[in-house]
Specification:
The complex is a heterodimer of chains A (112) and B (116). Helix content of chain A is 0%, strand content 55%. With 112 residues, chain A is mainly beta. In chain A, strands 2, 4, 5, 9, 10 and 11 form a six-stranded mixed beta sheet that branches. A five-stranded antiparallel beta sheet of chain A has the order 1-3-8-7-6, with no helix packed on it. Chain B contains no helices and eleven strands. In chain B, the strands form two sheets. In chain B, strands 2, 4, 5, 6, 9, 10 and 11 form a seven-stranded mixed beta sheet that branches. In chain B, strands 1-3-8-7 form a four-stranded antiparallel beta sheet, with no helix packed on it. The radius of gyration of chain B is 14 Å and the shape is globular. Chain B is mainly beta. Chain B has strands at 4-7, 10-13, 18-25, 31-37, 44-50, 53-57, 64-70, 73-79, 87-94, 106-107, 111-115. The chains are: A mainly beta (112), B mainly beta (116).
Chain lengths: 112, 116
């Protein structure tokens, strides 16, 4: 079964600093990978996805992620954090039945 | 209305009550999902409907009963719940056709359920 592991349940960065949220996957087939963001009291919003093609994927709000098969990773980055980026971030992999298997989430704190 | 909507947004119910959660998607999708999000736990997939047929039930207790009358609507009927069922219940939809190249799921805002 496909699964993801998010390293670090909490990450704190200063405003303007690099954001790096880690995600490693386990999959017996070429994976379809996703990053979602969840703001307080809201549902999940898609940031970006990787299905096939270019391994560097750009998403909304200045985020991007790189699919690295050799490292089984799909880490999320943003060059410069904004206060508005504070939220919960979830990595997910699609299983054979189109459902998504989510990681436990990483809470991003941005300090002034 | 656009996207995925859920009603009610908040619900408080006693353990002997019967209530229903409603989800509606306005995206023309054919697959719909129920997830449970509890504090300190990962998102748990509960049910999957594809073209109105239930294709997945992840060992969910029978006190949760899903219903999908058409590809745009999804319900979760609740009865004799336990306090540990208190959580955020999220609905999602996607285009799960083989010909699709989208695959991503679109989520509603969720229903915050409190069982007293």
């Amino acid at each position: 079964a496909q699964s993801v592991t998010q390293l670090g349940s909490h990450v704190s960065v200063s405003e303007g600093a690099l954001v790096l949220l880690r995600c490693n996957y386990s999959s017996s087939v070429p994976p379809y990978l996703f990053w979602y963001v969840q703001y307080p009291n809201q549902g999940l919003q898609l940031l970006l996805k990787y299905t096939t093609g270019a391994t560097l994927v750009k998403g909304i709000n200045g985020f991007e992620a790189e699919f690295k098969k050799s490292e089984t990773s799909f880490h999320l980055t943003k060059p410069s954090a904004h206060m508005s980026d504070a939220a919960e971030y979830f990595c997910a992999v699609m299983d054979s039945g189109y459902a998504l298997n989510f990681g436990k989430g990483t809470s991003l704190l941005v300090t002034p | 209305e656009t996207g995925v909507t859920q009603t009610p947004r908040h619900l408080v119910m006693g353990m002997t009550n019967k209530k229903s959660l409603k989800c509606e998607q306005h995206l023309g999708h054919n697959a719909m999902y129920w997830y449970k999000q509890s504090a300190k736990k990962p998102l748990e997939l509960m049910f999957v409907y594809n073209f109105k047929e239930q294709t997945e039930n992840n060992s969910v207790p029978s006190r949760f009963s899903p219903e999908c009358p058409n590809s745009s609507h999804l319900f979760l009927h609740l009865h004799t719940l336990q306090p540990e069922d208190s959580a955020l219940y999220l609905c999602a939809s996607s285009d799960a056709r083989i010909s699709s190249d989208s695959y991503e799921q679109y989520f509603g805002p969720g229903t915050r359920l409190t069982v007293t």
